[in-house]
């Protein structure tokens, strides 16, 4: 009995130490801000702090959150990906075109649609990575061009029309529930957990930080810098494809204009979460909190009846504050 009590005490102390380390890191103020905003919104609107509202927030941010996982890897390497929104739309539309006219029970076509969406996402991400890593092109310009090409291809494939009705296997990731929890939320959490493990617990994750911190030093240390950069963009393409699958499944349709402007929300969640645009610093946990914070602000202000235009203004102000704090932090280092 005494041994059990001692073990519990040690576990409690370990959790306390971990929590203190978290607060001392850059996530402390972010967590505090999220908690304070949630408290303020729950006081102003009692219906905010309900299970249905909180679940709705998680579902609403699921597409942004999934895409932001891959984007976090890219930005930690001091890159940027502006093509993510167009790629979300493209992967959903290509899969929809492949499954055109298939009945709801067509398992084979549904699985093929999933595979095609992931393959397209990985291929486009790999093209971005190839151009940035080996052709040494500027990430902003490369992904801006890819954003236009992917959106144009989406419109060309669809002829500007929305495609409806997909097999149940495909829509399950966006429309079904498991143990009472919506599939988009579960997919998002699974992607975040996988991303966190990959970034924090694997040699590849350590290499991502090293490349973002100092490419030349990483190269001298024997790290394959070009390959790491290439893989981060490929990963961003895969997570964009997963986001596209979830979005198309939620809507049971693929829209040519889907995810328009999503890249700005993705970058906002990543930067608000503490990932530095200068590279070398960031975390998947921080991105998760940043994405949720944006969702909380959007849903909370909507419940309060705030004009959507002001909501967009406030969201922009939060992004500006996050970028300003990052810039000030970089200046203090130098």
Structure in words:
- Helices cover 77% and strands 2% of the residues.
- It is mostly helical.
- 44% of the residues are buried.
- The chain is globular and about 60 Å long.
- Strands 1-4 form a two-stranded antiparallel sheet. A two-stranded antiparallel sheet has the order 2-3.
- The mean pLDDT is 89.
- The protein has one domain: Orthogonal Bundle (ABC transporter involved in vitamin B12 uptake, BtuC), CATH 1.10.3470.
Describe how the helices and strands are arranged.
Elements: H1 2-24, H2 27-44, H3 51-60, H4 62-76, H5 84-98, H6 107-133, H7 139-158, E1 163-164, H8 168-175, E2 177-178, E3 181-182, H9 183-201, H10 203-213, H11 215-220, H12 225-251, E4 253-254, H13 262-272, H14 284-303, H15 308-333
Antiparallel strand pairs: 1-4, 2-3
Helix pairs in contact: 2-14, 3-14, 4-9, 4-12, 4-13, 4-14, 5-6, 5-7, 5-12, 6-7, 6-8, 6-12, 8-12, 9-10, 9-12, 10-12, 13-14, 13-15, 14-15
Keywords: Cell membrane, Membrane, Transmembrane, Transmembrane helix
Main location: membrane
GO molecular function: transmembrane transporter activity
What's this, in brief?
With 334 residues, the chain is mainly α. The chain has helices spanning 2-24, 27-44, 51-60, 62-76, 84-98, 107-133, 139-158, 168-175, 183-201, 203-213, 215-220, 225-251, 262-272, 284-303, 308-333, and strands at residues 163-164, 177-178, 181-182, 253-254.
Descriptive tags:
334 residues, ABC transporter involved in vitamin B12 uptake, BtuC, two-stranded antiparallel sheet, ABC_transp_permease, Ribose transport system permease protein, membrane, transmembrane transporter activity, cell membrane
